[in-house]
Design brief:
alpha/beta; seven-stranded parallel sheet; four-stranded antiparallel sheet; elongated; M/V/L/I-tRNA-synth_anticd-bd; ligase
Length: 526
């Protein structure tokens, strides 16, 4: 993409039936890193996140907590979901709630258009319904519980809870009309669904044939009213998917909508079918462009199982950030897991990576270089002298890290981008060990060489500050100030990171960017 282009990225909107865990935060951080990176390339990046607040699951949860669905949603959003964004340092541009008036109006407008164009009809449906998924299930989506409270019963393969048999008069979306159109889309745009494992699953699913989709409920009333029949509310997924367009002015602000849409949609792989099958079919029916891409990332696993509150494997993000900080949280999940694949979380791995890569690697590098410039040159950044092969190798690594990390981001390979940048961290540490500036300082004849070595390392630190700022916004801002970076760090071009300007002086870091932390490896507590 070129400077000035629009880059719209959206997370899925999250159910407010419970509090967020690190699986939700993982998605938020990935979207935020991508948005920040594209912003620093001069693009008009825009990040949307929010909450899904309708449906039977929310209604039942609210009743169980002796409150109304709206009061329950308001409380969870205010107390848990919006604070999550501060906890992990998310720079979102908008926060959409499906109970927002702007959203409900957009849903009614969209639905009426499909109804008027003949894509919706009345009918009756009977099937297995999982309240946890808010979805009718096919038999191959169910398993027979082998033991426990539900032994012998059909349960949802995801939630391990019994499904209900529902029979309702509903309105249906003629999704079966769009099977071939979707297959043509997947073939003509191979990168529409990513990664390849998710794409292959989606293609095979659609090839088996699509049924029409029940898009209304009449057995409860917590949802957006169907505009031509207020005895029905809109199916929660049909409602929720429209947040991606309701937030940018669909049906209200045509200029804003045209400026932003289509979006990159970042979702967990378990909801990829909704976003890569139902959602584009809805858009095709409405005559609207499909998303730019749907990327279904893997799950976070704890003890070999998907993160789950119901199974008591959910970990609150604050349990990590209270000890390690938000930057470490962001770095760990973006670097330790291959983006697009499942990844296992453990306190031991988090602690080990924090100490080795952040405290000893990046943090110690910054502290040593700044301390030596202060000690040997009274804080003035020295001028470069004649470059040796070792110096030129560092310059080449800066250029390579910039180019390869930017290319990796274009492929959603956040972990690969960080690996490319970390080569510069490692090479700078090795360069200092090799050049021994403390030894050079002992002989006045080596003054120019000492200056070149320290100028080279300071320049490398500036490049690192820019390349790592989307992932480590707090630490890199401190570093940028300490090395005298000119202008706002977030305004520096990340696709030209090796070329940056300094005021010419460094200031001491009062504390390390990543202080060493002694933790209990099993609990993660300090």
């Amino acid at each position: 993409m070129s400077a000035g282009d629009s880059f719209y990225i959206a997370t899925p909107i999250f159910y407010v039936n419970d509090v967020p865990h690190i699986g939700h935060a993982y998605t938020e951080v990935a979207a935020d890193v991508l948005a920040r990176w594209h912003r620093q390339r001069g693009e008009d990046a825009w990040l949307l996140t929010g909450t899904d607040e309708h449906g039977q699951k929310i209604l039942r949860t609210a009743v169980a907590n002796n409150t109304t669905p709206q009061e329950w949603a308001d409380r969870l959003v205010a107390d848990s979901w919006q604070p999550l964004l501060d906890t992990i340092d998310i720079a979102n541009d908008d926060f959409i709630r499906t109970t927002d008036e702007r959203h409900e109006k957009a849903v009614a407008t969209f639905l009426q258009r499909l109804y008027d164009d003949g894509h919706i009809y009345a009918g009756e449906y009977e099937g297995y319904y999982c309240v946890g998924c808010e979805e009718y299930k096919q038999l191959d989506d169910l398993v027979t519980a082998p033991d426990g409270d539900y032994k012998g019963q059909l349960v949802c393969a995801i939630h391990s809870r019994p499904v209900e048999v529902l029979k309702e008069k509903n309105y249906f979306f003629r999704m079966s009309d769009f099977g071939q159109k979707l297959l043509d889309l997947y073939e003509s745009q191979p990168d529409f669904v990513q990664p390849a494992s998710v794409r292959n699953e989606i293609v095979q699913f659609v090839k088996q044939g699509l049924d029409d989709l029940s898009i209304s409920r009449s057995s409860f009333d917590w949802g957006v009213k169907v505009p031509w029949d207020e005895t029905h509310v809109v199916y929660v997924w049909f409602d929720a998917l429209l947040n991606y367009v309701s937030a940018i002015g669909y049906g209200v602000d045509d200029d804003q909508f045209a400026k932003r849409w289509p979006a990159v949609q970042l979702v967990g792989k378990d909801i990829a079918r909704f976003h890569a099958v139902i959602w584009p079919a809805m858009l095709l029916a409405a005559g609207l462009p499909v998303p730019r891409a749907v990327f279904g990332h893997g799950w976070l696993l704890v003890g070999g199982e998907k993160m789950s509150k119901s199974k008591l494997t959910g970990i609150a993000p604050s349990q990590i950030t209270d000890t390690f900080g938000s930057d470490a949280f962001r770095y760990y999940f973006m670097s330790a897991i291959t983006f697009g694949q499942d990844g296992s979380f453990s306190w031991e791995d988090l602690s080990a990576r924090y100490q080795a890569e952040l405290a000893n690697g990046f943090g110690n590098l910054a502290s040593r270089v700044i301390a030596m410039v202060n000690k040997y040159f009274d804080g003035d950044i020295p001028a470069l002298g004649a470059l040796t092969a070792s110096d030129e190798a560092i310059v080449a690594t800066q250029k390579r890290a910039t180019e390869k990390s930017n290319a990796a981001i274009d492929s959603f390979a956040i972990n690969e981008a960080l690996a490319e940048v970390w080569q510069l961290v490692d090479e700078l540490n090795g360069y200092i060990t090799e050049q021994e500036p403390w030894a050079l300082s002992k002989n006045p004849a080596n003054r120019e060489r000492l200056g070149t070595v320290l100028a080279t390392t300071v320049n490398g630190l500036g490049t690192l500050a820019i390349l790592l700022s989307p992932v480590l916004p707090k630490a890199t801002e401190r570093l940028w100030q300490a090395i005298g970076g000119v202008g706002e760090l977030r305004g520096q071009r990340i696709d030209d990171a090796q070329h940056w300007a300094t005021s010419g002086r460094v200031t001491a870091l009062e504390t390390s960017l990543f202080p060493r932390i002694e933790v209990d490896a099993e609990s993660g507590t300090a």
